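CHAIN AND CONFORMATION:
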Amino acid sequence: MTYVVIESCIKCKYTDCVEVCPVDCFHEGPNFLVIDPEECIDCSLCEPECPVNAILAEDDVPDDQQHFLPLNEELSQIWPVITEIKPAPADAAEWEEVKDKFQYLEK
């Protein structure tokens, strides 16, 4: 099992999760983070750190978010690793409660 970043992260991109990751499996895109499923050791340390509940165990990913499993795998092969916390985007709080954000994902 691996952990997966889902839609809630889009445009919020809080990085609290990357600081606790013992294996550096997070990768950073323009407005979203992903987890490399090959690097993730299923430690679950990142999940409670996310203020928008955007990290789930793959077995807990809802049906309408299943497309994020292959997306995390795909983008983790392209985007650089992130290991240190960074400031959230200036408008992150405005996006926290927004639903259906997939259209805003920047690759």
Summary: The chain has a mean pLDDT of 97. The chain has three helices and four strands.
